[in-house]
Amino acid sequence: MSLSLRHTSEKKEKAASSRLVDEAKVHGFETELISLEKMLHQRQSSDQFKAIGIVGKRGVGKTTLCQVLFNKKAKEPVQANFLPRIWVCMSWNPNEYEHDHKATIVRRMLKYLGVENNIIDSVYKDHSLGGLLYALHLQLTGKKYLIVLDDAKPKETEEWFANLDSPITEKEKWGERLAFGLPKGHGGTVIVTSRDEKVAKMMVGEKNLFHLLPLSHPKSCSSIFNNHMKEGQKLENDTEEKEFLKKCAGLPLAATMMGKIKSEELEKAAKEAPEKAAKEPESPISSKDKQKNNTEELPTEPKPIQPDEAAKSSKDDKKIKSEEVPAGEKHIQQQENSIGSKDDEQIRSEEHPAEAEPRPNQEGAAHSEIHEEAVSGTN
Q1: Residues in domain NB-ARC (predicted)?
Q2: pTM of the predicted model, to two decimals?
Q3: So where are the chain's domains?
Q4: Class of domain 16-213
Q5: Torsion sign across C-alpha atoms 29, 35, 38, 40
């Protein structure tokens, strides 16, 4: 986790948690919800005050379980039996008020009960923390209330938060304990959630602790994960799903976060895919194949034959032909070639007759004639 993301997470933790929940996205708490409801109604009389502490590691679903219980329909026990019902986040935001943490908690409770801010400010100004607790007591007297104190932290180990079932006595002052602002004897109930078992134990007592464990069924985490995936999105294969379940470790918060992150990654990849394909350079292999295909499609011009190549080709043809002729026929072919050669010479001599050579008697006659002309010439 980056530093900036860590700071953002811390700021979100300081924001007040909400009582609202989408029950369609809650999975795996059926058994725990039944057990918590039974514990809620286990008391000696209907008017007895009850305090319950839900403890477990971060992300196990303590707040979610309380939200489901808190928002059960009117026909069901919680909304039918408890009124008013208020949800108070115990996380402290120093910027919310200029008062200490104790006063901030009580101010929130009064605000959610419908008391106006100007009245709260006036009471605190005139009577300090004790005045706020007295005002809270008056607002809740005679009512079977249900208050959820969500996310109690180690700083609540102060004595002021201890023993919520303690009634106020004449010897004590209103501002000494949170418990004094919670009337007893009308069936009021407080549920505390905390990661720290010591804190919850100090506030409600060990016998009233409800330990919430990670989800044991893998399908529950898968359902939570898929709730945060958009339509058409899913994990690539079984190996990736097994890796997710291992990292999730049965924690609903982890399944929620991983589902949101995976959905964003898939959405981003889908948007970037066309741009990436357009910008990606063509591989050398595919380029060569493409060039080869284009070359095969185009007609090729005949290559001019060089004299040396023609002679070589002629010799090769003769060699191939000679190799193809059987030995018996080869001798006959040689004789035919010899006869054919003589015939060719005779044809050429007939087409181009040579000048006849002078005969011996003719040469003598010519010589005598020349001699006679020479003698007569001298005469």
Answers
A1: 39-228
A2: 0.65
A3: 16-213, 215-274
A4: alpha beta
A5: negative
